[in-house]
Protein: NAD(P)/FAD-dependent oxidoreductase
Organism: Gordonia westfalica
Amino acid sequence: MTAVDRVDVLIIGAGISGIGAARYLRTEHPSKTFSIVEARAAAGGTWDLFRYPGIRSDSDLHTFGYEFKPWTDKQAIADAPRILDYLHETIEENDLTGHIRYHHKVVAAAWSSDDARWLVDLERTDSGERAQISARWIFCGSGYYDYDEGFSPDFAGEDRFRGQIVHPQHWPEDLDYAGKRVVVIGSGATAVTLLPAMAEEAAHVTMLQRTPTYVIPLPREDAIANSLKKIFGNERGYALTRQKNVAQQRILFELCQRFPQVARRMIRKINKSQLPEDFPVDVHFNPPYDPWDQRLCVVPDADLFRTIRSGKASIVTDRIASFTETGILLESGVELEADIIVTATGLNIKIIGGIDLTVDGNPVSLPDTVVYRGIMLSGVPNFALAIGYTNASWTLKIGLLCQYFCKLLGYMDSHGHDAVWPVADPDMPTRPLLDFGAGYVQRALDTLPKQGPHAPWVMSMSYYADRRLFKGDVADENLRFARARQAQVLA
């Protein structure tokens, strides 16, 4: 990299969002220059970072996949290697390899209104060297997780445990759990994935949860989707399946929100049918909150329930008093013996990757900004961020954001604008960005941007509402456009 490279768009992150944004740029604005900077050594984001046993999607790939690239694998709930193959194919098919700069972490970005450009500070994660790149736009596709550290509570007596403690975000490649007793702390998507995967080799696996989670079984393969692809071909069959699954996701979500007690009874009935006759369903599968106040956990082919029925795994609902030399002492007085403890206790949120943003020398305080159309931040010019749905497939939202982003670029080109930023009414009431009960969200709300009470200032979680919003006019009274005062000189 030269001292200061120049691009039209700098995409941060070579995960599913960044790769998608690059593809849309290639097709909608082929004359624009762009680079993708990735702090890690490989593309794939989440699907390359996490290496724990059984890692898979918790959304079907017909909606988690890109609209422009059919998912042709028979698995609908797919494991990570298949998703990685899909992402690598997208990179190759769209000639993106040469645009990705690995081992480049964005540290800071400074906007100059005089130049209508960002000056971005980069650090090479393999050497520590510093470099800079100048960009007209930043598209932040890094998601909202902290890729450096997961969330691990402080457990009393943790240093006394003589076995091995592992966090799923930093899974050792050489971890040998064959014939060993494993306790997985947690009840979310990671825990319900680990339980059946590790039980194949471990002596026994116990999932220790403080609070139960709603769990529903789904077929790993979507028979209707596979039939539609056979009848109509991959592209048309994929499109039809995508429409079907988007509708199913929305109907399930609305049912849970409008009729929570009915949804609770339905889920309980399904769980009970999958478990041993005398299993205490209301102890281990009866969350204190309503369905979809937090994300539902999907288990493909009911593997979690099948493993419990086999006796290879069990669930304990209790609180931890302390770790011991040989396991975990619970508040009930019971001690769970363990050779390995897996802390599947969640993730940390780090919005926009923790980048220090400044606008004309003034630091940007994210909690003081308001999100516009779910893609821009009030008062921050030429900056797009990609955050997907929490109640449906992440990529459904990303696709809509990328299409709007490309339309906005075209609008600015045709009207001779160099910069754009949203302006929020200072008297507009605001609320937290994500209306979601998950612990990792609640812990981070004070660090996140806000949302307003109505469109376009809401962080919509409805694909249908967003599709209508983004199909409307590109510009509205909330956007301000400008030309760079020195653009002619620097061009």
The chain has two domains: 4-148+348-490, 158-221+229-343.
